[in-house]
Every structure is written in structure tokens, then in C-alpha cells.
From TrEMBL:
SUPFAM superfamilies: Porins (SSF56935). This is Putative iron complex outermembrane recepter protein. It is found in: Cell outer membrane. One of its GO terms (molecular function) is siderophore uptake transmembrane transporter activity. Residues 68-155 form the TonB-dependent receptor plug domain. It is a multi-pass membrane protein. It comes from Methylibium petroleiphilum (strain ATCC BAA-1232 / LMG 22953 / PM1). Residues 1-28 form the signal peptide.
């Protein structure tokens, strides 16, 4: 006899209730507050606004985002299912999704390109501060092709309301203050929004300052061999600030608006004791939407932005060693067509132009000009009940031009070159409602994708010593497109606050572009320093893994108790050599619990990362570790206002731990944060 829809929940409660007498174990940070009802997930990266779209995704917003906020996107997202970080110390920290990093992860701001230099080098930060982000989304599957065929690993979209999309009546805003932690953070962010009579205005500002990150005592390698005992990461302080002003005109069937924003960040490079990155980014954006047009086109969305990015690497003497510039623009035009029976969808075009310059003696990539033009489409077909199919396709035309030695400090890049690529990607996904067979709340998700990625400027034209990796890196101007196929499946169950998800994936590449050691004699510079030689090469590769997660409310009423568990792993192999691929996160386990009463929530978390000894020959294993984190929060509400106060105690046992995703040259210099106490307050009015 088939079990009733509530049977999974009842069985779980019966099994877990005896645990309530034990101390709190943990709460995975993605958990919502116990008094929050879980709505269907609507990913704004999907313009069809469908819930349960056919893609593995994670969404952070509201109190869940406030409690997770770090100083970087990588730190904020790390720990979500399948998501880790590159961790070049606390300041430069890009997301890594299912073992994929760099250009394979498309980082967006309001669906627009960031046009920075963060994918070029591990020590380059993403110029987005989580303090002013309202929502973070991790998107994969057919909908990801709307934003870039290079997003082999997925899309990270940081969303704010700097161009208001909906009418604002009156005045509102928010203030957030944070302090403490292992870096002795002092940060504040504020936003104000006002509107009326069809006009909406947004303004925000933030500032964040940190000291060198405090860590458990460790033996730090020093130049010339040997070690020194340290209790902090040398040269890891930072000073970031920024703000934005935006406005839009609203009418019954759309809006049109503009914004300007600026970002400044001065931070230390942990690989060098006295080098500072001085980062500056300014951006201007236009956006609009026209809805309910009638006829075959239901709505039109458009976005255009211009970005001016620069950072200088400043030596301890005050001399500028290298300057990186990236100045460009990108735009997209998106059309939603009228439903064709049960089929609805969008199609559009996207264009991007960027002028990249690397100036100085330590530049290892020549100045380049890149142009991209793309056509894309995403369709969704409703089937019986809640089941649906989705389809995505994208064709991109790339042109990348190197200036060679023109303007280079040293003649090492050769003649000017131009490379052109046409890359095509397609994906199909499905959500199948299993309620008729298994009971309410069960569904099966699946995605099958073929992707092509054009090589980047550094994969094609690099030729020089890269200080961040302590290697001589050489590109290959004859590289072909990276080609891969991906399959992922997931079984999900949801019922109120309770949920289960079990998923697995496999990705195969016929021309995976990897930076590999050549075995050539070391390159010796003018100062007599020797550097191993690495080259970008296309190899066969496979990445596979699984993600398990569950959440259960085991006590409901005036008091609530929620439990969570999470397990994920990635296995990545260079099939051309049989070696593992580098910088892959180990198997990770999280166990958690939260106790709620009258707006108070006591949370705990135990995080276990296993030893990562599956590494290539030129890397070293990373030891496993167990971290315990605690948090106490209080939610208040009055006269339409609300506030969240929290205190966090991280790494309770002061455990020395290292990130397996860090590049080998910096891993031993930059342990994870030690025991720390922090507090924060967010007030919305």
C-alpha cells in the first residue's frame, strides 16, 4: 500500500526526536529562520519566473543572507551544496562550483557582466561587496545559457535594487552594522529608497575595514627556507568602500531607469608581505522593461552598462609594479513571446566589448581587445500536473586580439595576433512530478547539456612569471574550443519546513583547458629566481560528484527545533594523464540544529572536511578538519519595521585548517580563520 504524503515527515520526526536531549549539533547556514515558511523558489535569473525550474540552484536572501555575509562572494557562498571557494586569503575569494572555477563560473551583477580581472588571477578580488547585495543566486542548467556559454560550472548572480524595477510609495531603507570576527571587521552599509507619482529613487553606501586575519598558531614558510611562528595572515588587511545612486520611472506596464555606482578596495596580497592591490571600479547602467505588449511579443527587457575597472599592484616602496585595466560595455535585449499553448519562452541577444591592459614589468598577459556577440533562447513546456520540460540554446561569436609586444615593458609576447571562435551550447532539462507514484512533494529533476567555451585571453596569450602562482605560465594561441557534456539528476521531496534532496552529476570534456606543468627546465629571471614552467593545454577530463541535503522540523509550536544535514563531494580527473585535477574541495559533511523561541534563535553547526589527498604530483595533500560554529539571533518587528540582531562564535575550538581549493603557493601562508566572536545588527524601515 502506498504511504500517505506525510509519511516521510512522520518517520523522520520519529527517528530524530530522541536527539533533542543532546546538545545542539549545528545548522547549515542556508537554513531559513525557524518561523519562516518555505515558499516555492523563484529564481530571478530565470525570466519565466517559474518555481522549481529544471536546474540545481541555491538562493540566499533575507536573514539567511545576513547571517552568511562575508567580505567576498566566495566566502559568502562557500558551504552551499556543491559550492566552495578559491580562497587566496580573506580578500580574494571566488566561488567554485562542483570543482569548476575561473572563467567557467560566470559572475554577474543584476545579470550584467562584472568586467573585472578576477578570473585572470587568484589574488584578484571580485568588485562586488556582499554588504549591499539583496539576493544571491547560483544557477545551472538550461536557464544558465541565457547569460553565457562559458558558464560551464554555473552562474552566480548578485542582485540589488539600484535600478528600482517596481513602484516605491513613500520612504524606506535599511541599515546594517557588523563588527568583530577574526579580522576585527568594522563595516556598515545603508540604503534609502523613496518614490511616488511614478518615480523611484535608490541610494546606498557601504564601508568595510579589516585587520590582518587572526588564525591559530601555525608555521609560516619564509623566503630562503624555514618557517616562522605566526598567529595571523601577514598582509591580509583591507579597506573597501563604495556606493550607488539610481532612479527609475514607473508606469503600469514597465519601467526605465539608470544607476551609477563606484567600488574601491585596497587590500594586501598574502603571497607577498608588502604588496597592496589598489582597486577601483566605476559603472553606469541603464535598464528597462515593457510588459503586456499584446501580439506575439509579451514583454521586452533591456540592459546596457559601461564599466571602467583598474587595479594597481603597489610595492612596499610605494612604486606601482603592475597596472591592470579593463574598460568595456555589455548589453542584452530579451523578448518574451506570447504562450504557444503550454509553451512559453524568451529569446534575445547579448553583446560585450572589453579592452584589457596589463602594464608593468610583472605583466604576464599582453593587452587585448575582446568582442562577443551572442544569440540565446530558453523555452519551457508545461506537462501534466507540476511537470515541465525546459530547453536552452546559445550561439556566441568571439574575437580576441592581442597587441603582442606593443606597449609591453619587456618584449615577451611576440607579434599581434587575432583569434576568432564560434561556440554553441544547448541544454534540456525536466521536472517530473512524482506525486501520483510516491505521494505529495516528490519530484525528479534532470538536466543534459552540451557546452562549448572559447579560450580566454590569458589561456591564449600568457607568457611570463605569474607571481600569484609562483610559476612561469605560457598560453597557446592555437587552442581550440573547450567542449563538454554534463548530466545531472536529483530526487527531491518537500513538505512544509521539511525537505530532502539527493543529486548526482557527471561532466566529460574532450578539450578541457588546464594549466599543467610541462617538465621543462625552470625559468630563471634576472634576479636569479627559478620558476617552474606551466602551459595551458587541452586535455580530456571528467568531473563527477553528488550532493545530499535535508532539513526537518522536529518540534513545532511556541518552541521550534530544526535539524539539517548536508554531504557533498567532487571527483575530478585529467583523463589524458590519469592525474587528479588540482584545487578540488574534499568530501564535506555538515550537521546542524536550531532552537527558536519568541523571535530568538540559537544555531549551531559542525562542519567536517575530509583530507584531500587526491592531488596532482606537483601539489601536496591538505589535512582534514572539523569546525564548530554557534550563532544567537533575535528578530524584532514593530510598526512595519523589522530588525535582526546576531552574535556569532566561529571555529569554537580554534582549529587550524587549510582550504584545499587554495592555489599551492598560498595555501600554507593562509589558514582559515581562527576562533572569533562577531556581532551585527540589521534594521529595515
Amino acid at each position: 500500500m502506498r504511504s500517505s504524503p506525510s509519511s516521510p515527515s512522520q518517520a523522520l520526526r520519529a527517528a530524530l526526536l530522541p536527539l533533542l536531549g543532546t546538545p545542539l549539533l549545528a545548522l547549515a547556514q542556508t537554513a531559513p529562520p525557524p518561523d519562516t515558511t518555505l515558499p516555492p523558489v523563484v529564481v530571478t535569473g530565470n525570466p519565466l519566473d517559474s518555481d522549481g525550474i529544471a536546474t540545481p540552484n541555491s538562493v540566499l536572501a533575507g536573514p539567511g543572507l545576513v547571517l552568511r555575509r562575508g567580505s567576498s562572494l566566495g566566502e559568502t557562498l562557500s558551504g552551499l551544496p556543491g559550492v566552495s571557494s578559491s580562497y587566496f586569503g580573506p580578500n580574494a575569494n571566488r566561488p567554485v562550483i562542483r570543482g569548476q572555477d575561473g572563467d567557467r563560473i560566470r559572475v554577474l551583477n543584476n545579470a550584467g557582466a562584472t568586467l573585472d580581472a578576477s578570473a585572470l588571477s587568484f589574488d584578484h578580488a571580485v568588485p562586488i561587496d556582499p554588504l549591499v547585495v539583496e539576493r544571491l543566486e547560483v544557477l545551472r542548467g538550461p536557464a544558465a545559457l541565457l547569460y553565457g556559454g562559458s558558464a560551464v560550472g554555473g552562474v552566480v548572480n548578485a542582485i540589488d535594487n539600484r535600478i528600482p524595477k517596481a513602484a516605491i510609495d513613500g520612504v524606506g531603507g535599511a541599515l546594517e552594522l557588523r563588527g568583530g570576527g577574526a579580522a576585527r571587521e568594522r563595516s556598515a552599509g545603508a540604503l534609502v529608497e523613496a518614490g511616488g507619482n511614478g518615480l523611484a529613487i535608490h541610494a546606498d553606501v557601504f564601508a568595510r575595514k579589516t585587520d590582518d586575519l587572526r588564525v591559530p598558531d601555525f608555521d609560516r614558510p619564509v623566503d630562503g627556507g624555514g618557517t616562522e611562528r605566526r598567529d595571523r595572515i601577514v598582509n591580509s588587511a583591507s579597506d573597501a568602500k563604495g556606493g550607488a545612486l539610481g532612479a527609475s520611472m514607473q508606469w503600469d506596464h514597465g519601467y526605465l531607469g539608470a544607476s551609477v555606482d563606484t567600488y574601491r578596495n585596497d587590500y594586501g596580497i598574502v603571497a607577498e608581505d608588502d604588496v597592496l592591490i589598489r582597486m577601483r571600479r566605476d559603472k553606469f547602467a541603464l535598464a528597462g522593461e515593457w510588459r503586456d505588449l499584446g501580439g506575439p511579443i509579451r514583454s521586452v527587457r533591456a540592459r546596457l552598462q559601461a564599466t571602467d575597472y583598474q587595479h594597481q599592484e603597489v610595492e612596499g616602496t610605494g612604486e606601482v609594479g603592475t597596472t591592470f585595466k579593463n574598460k568595456g560595455s555589455d548589453g542584452r535585449l530579451e523578448f518574451e513571446h506570447a504562450p504557444l499553448g503550454d509553451l512559453k519562452g524568451v529569446f534575445g541577444l547579448q553583446a560585450e566589448h572589453a579592452r584589457f591592459e596589463a602594464l608593468g614589468e610583472e605583466a604576464f598577459v599582453p593587452s587585448t581587445t575582446s568582442d562577443q556577440f551572442a544569440l540565446f533562447a530558453h523555452e519551457e513546456l508545461k506537462l501534466q500536473g507540476a511537470s515541465r520540460l525546459s530547453f536552452g540554446a546559445r550561439v556566441e561569436r568571439h574575437r580576441i586580439e592581442s597587441e603582442g609586444d606593443a606597449g609591453a615593458a619587456d618584449p615577451k609576447f611576440g607579434d599581434a595576433l587575432s583569434r576568432r571562435y564560434t561556440a554553441g551550447s544547448a541544454a534540456v532539462g525536466g521536472v517530473w512530478d512524482l506525486a501520483p507514484a510516491f505521494g505529495s512533494g516528490w519530484q525528479l529533476n534532470g538536466n543534459l547539456a552540451y557546452t562549448e567555451r572559447a579560450p580566454t585571453n590569458y589561456e591564449l596569450f600568457a607568457n611570463g612569471v605569474h607571481i600569484a602562482t609562483a610559476a612561469f605560465e605560457r598560453g597557446d594561441a592555437e587552442l581550440g574550443k573547450e567542449k563538454g557534456s554534463n548530466l545531472d539528476l536529483a530526487l527531491e521531496w518537500k513538505s512544509g519546513h521539511d525537505r530532502l534532496r539527493a543529486g548526482a552529476f557527471v561532466s566529460n570534456f574532450s578539450n578541457y583547458i588546464a594549466l599543467l606543468r610541462t617538465g621543462e627546465p625552470d625559468f630563471v629571471n634576472d634576479e636569479g629566481e627559478a620558476f617552474q614552467v606551466y602551459a595551458f593545454q587541452g586535455v580530456k577530463a571528467r568531473l563527477s560528484g553528488f550532493e545530499l541535503e535535508g532539513a526537518w522540523r522536529v518540534l513545532e509550536g511556541a518552541r521550534t527545533v530544526d535539524l539539517e544535514a548536508q554531504l557533498d563531494a567532487v571527483r575530478a580527473t585529467n583523463r589524458s594523464t590519469g592525474e587528479p585535477l588540482p584545487r578540488i574541495a574534499p568530501l564535506r559533511v555538515k550537521l546542524g540544529a536550531a532552537y527558536g523561541l519568541e523571535g530568538w534563535t540559537l544555531r549551531g553547526e559542525v562542519v567536517r572536511a575530509q583530507k584531500q589527498d587526491r592531488v596532482p604530483d606537483d601539489d601536496e595533500p591538505t589535512a582534514g578538519y572539523t569546525l564548530i560554529n554557534l550563532a544567537l539571533s533575535k528578530r524584532l518587528a514593530w510598526d512595519g519595521n523589522d530588525a535582526l540582531f546576531f552574535v556569532k562564535l566561529d571555529n569554537l575550538t580554534d582549529r587550524l585548517a587549510y582550504n584545499a581549493g587554495s592555489v599551492a603557493t598560498v595555501r600554507d601562508l593562509a589558514p582559515l580563520p581562527g576562533r572569533s566572536l562577531s556581532a551585527g545588527l540589521r534594521v529595515a524601515f
